[in-house]
Amino acid sequence: MLGPMPSPCIGICKMNDDGSLCVGCGRTSVEIKEWPSYDGERKLDVFRLLAKRRTEIGYGVPVLGYPVAALDRLILGSLDDSQAHWSIGVPGAAVEFNGLDESLLTARLWEYGGEVRGGQGGVRVVLDHGAQKIKMIGHPTADGRVGRIDLCLYTRKAAMSNRWTLGEIGPDVEALRTGDRQGVLFDLGLGLPHIDYCVRVEEAGLLALLREWRGKPVLGEDRTVFDALRAASPHRVLLTRMGRVEVWSPIPEADGETPIGPHSHLDPERIVKGWTVDPESPLPETLYPLISLTLSKSIPETMPAGKVAAQ
After folding, report:
1. Nearest-angstrom CA–CA distance, 145 and 178
2. What distance in Å separates the CA atoms of residue 249 and residue 239, rounded to the nearest whole number?
3. Rounded to the nearest 10 degrees, what angle do helices 224-232 and 204-212 cross at?
4. CA dihedral (168, 169, 171, 175) positive or negative
5. Which of 2, 110, 133, 169 is deepest in the core (most CB within 10 A)?
């Protein structure tokens, strides 16, 4: 028997002109009305129809059609997969974590999530379905398989500090490593509504400079702080309502190669474009992606029929 299934609803509840389908989720009015009464197998049947309708008609968003527990196992089971890629960010301002630098990965799980640490960074993921309406949105390819998953919340639930100037948060008491918890977090104030792009600082000289710069824009005409951060390579820590990604590796030179392991991006010229999601993303304006996972092995958008019996 299948466990609880996610809802295809993405908060755009509007029927098309002839009233046959919701332009947000792709369901019929009957499917929407009867959804709470459907068992898991019937909901799975609807998910398969939704994938077909989206391909043929264009309505709907690829909410993954799997039991919630199966999706959680997939997400948390990827923590110690060295080939999996995790990221938080927007075009021009992001951090990425993976195990391709061949460092030892140490994972830890708990009731509502898990975390993993490597030699150059780590990830913490919080999957509290009781407190949050988490939407797991796939990026399907032409063959209907999904290699990347965006873990999303509705925009109003995803809100972070949305600072536009440099701000001091204080000691990073939730750092992945105990030894980093005396470091002081500063939000760079990039104006991202769903992400706090932070650096963690312990070195006295950089700490003094950032405190002197509090309340000022980091990416204004005066790039003193930006240049100092590039030179000092403090830890980069990106925070969302669903967790964090930390990168401890040095920041490469502006014209240098991107490291294959954990690394960060901070490109002022792209940030000013104001993107909150990748322009190529299938996400609707009602959702923000808080953590993205690129799987080491792609999966079908909807659970295959043969796996239902194995649940």
Report:
1. 39
2. 18
3. 160
4. negative
5. 2
Q: Let me know: does 240 contact 233? Beta carbons within 8 Å.
A: no
User: Tokens standing for 82?
Assistant: 């060295």
Q: Does the structure show a pLDDT above 90 at 181?
A: yes
> Residue 289 pLDDT more than 60?
yes
- Report, as an integer, the average pLDDT of 110-137: 94
Which tokens is 126 given? 């919080």
The pLDDT tens digits of the residues spanning 30-76 come to 999 999 999 999 999 999 999 999 988 888 899 999 999 999 999 99
Tokens coding 197: 């792009």
User: In this structure, are residues 70 and 218 in contact, taking their beta carbons and an 8 Å threshold?
Assistant: no
Please state the three-class secondary structure of 195-221 as a single string.
CEEEEEECCHHHHHHHHHCCCCCCCCC
β partners of residue 148? 294
Residue pair 293/149 in contact (Cβ under 8 Å)? The answer is yes
Residues 6+ apart with CB under 8 A from 209: 224, 225, 228
Give the E-state strand segments of the chain in sequence order: 85-90, 93-97, 106-110, 113-117, 121-126, 135-140, 145-154, 167-171, 184-187, 196-201, 235-240, 243-247, 263-266, 287-300
Band of the pLDDT at 130, cuts 50, 70, 90? confident
Residue with token string 């490597």: 118
- For residue 45, the SS3 value is helix
Is 85:96 a contact under the CB 8 Å cutoff?
A: yes
Angle at alpha carbon of residue 54, lines to 242 and 2, rounded to 5°: 60
